[in-house]
Amino acid sequence: MDVLDLSRWQFGITTVYHFLFVPLTIGLSFIVAGLQTAWYRTKNLAYLRLTRFWGRLFLINFAMGVVTGIVQEFQFGMNWSAYSRFVGDVFGAPLAMEGLIAFFMESTFLGLWIFGWDRLPPRLHLATIWLAATGTAVSASFILAANSWMQHPVGYRLNPVSGRAELTDIWAVLTNPTTLVTFPHVIFGAFVTAGAFVAGVSAWQLSRGRDVPLFLTSARIAMVVGLVAAAGVAVSGHWQAQIMTEQQPMKMAAAEALWDDETSAGFSLFAVGDVAGGRNHVNIQVPNGLSLLATGTPDGKVEGINDIQARYQRLYGPGDYRPVVGLAYWSFRLMIGFGLLAGLLALAGLWLTRRGRLPASRWFYRTAVLGIGLPFLANSLGWIFTEMGRQPWTVFGVMRTAAAVSPGADVPEVALTLAGFTLVYGLLAVIEVRLLLKFVRLGVETEAEPNDPVPALSY
User: Fold this and answer.
1) 184, exposed or middle or buried, with CB in 10 Å at 0-12, 13-18, 19+?
2) Same domain for 233 and 284?
């Protein structure tokens, strides 16, 4: 491997690893805030116990997300200095706003929430967790604005003297149409992730008969959140597919292994293709499905890989503008498949626990625990598709990935940092899992006096 390949592997590994924590942090923060709101309004100590239990798990995950996220920005100077020099004036603005506004908001109010129990008035203390949760969403919006600029650059001009991209309209960057469809998709995905996590941990507790009224309630809340969010993911994903078809038609064509322009194009369920020959040997499709997804009409026209490649060569010059088609095709499918399974699992759980009943069969508890991983897989595959499908561009239509790597970096340096990050992140994974399991096994705290029974929740 050369420096470019190693740098891409390093950034890919650290990014996917970091994003394991981001959606869970966002979704879990709002669930904790909702539970504390229920306690504030009802004074039912059961809600307080749930708030503290899930709040501990949220804090562990938040801390790990902060630690792993710092590495992301370092890499722009370490391995991608050519990119940083070219787009720093534009790309740096939303990142700076994220640090100065969103992260400050998250950390400040989260600190007040942690140390404000029994020190702040209940209403003010409740406000701190809502403000911290809001900060996680605001943080995501700024990060997504920076990433969306790479997918669809707006609000800038190229300086012919310095050869750099310069910011001309920060509002255009923050309201990029790509950001406007990506943000709800990511937020809904975060709620699916948190819902699956809370439902799975609750199922583990229920399978052992521990605090059944409490964890049955948290499981049902989580499954409602997960089911509604899964529907939101589907709708926002449809919007995102339409924007992607318009802005990056090659990515959509690769996701569907569509080689030539088609009207009334079918959605591919399974395909075996010949990339060198630019055709499919086998392609099982849902008729008109792709046209409906990409254009909103069953007879819409969708561009194919071969036709886009020819057009891009005329527009950008000689070169191969196709991403890795097999990777784009299967990551797109698996992303949808795992997300769909997470939604169906939430629906099945709500049916089995209707009227406050416990599932008679233990298979559901085991399935719910395993189901924790479904949205994590869907999120990771979604980002792999998003970033790999943009190749060979770092900034679509403006800067190729090969031109973005640091000119001073060499193979031993990047290989050493890649190995180091992999080792450290492996250790952090062990710490994260051990901490989560420790506090899950400890269960909920008793917030009442020894002779004061905790009220049961109504279903």
Assistant:
1) middle
2) no
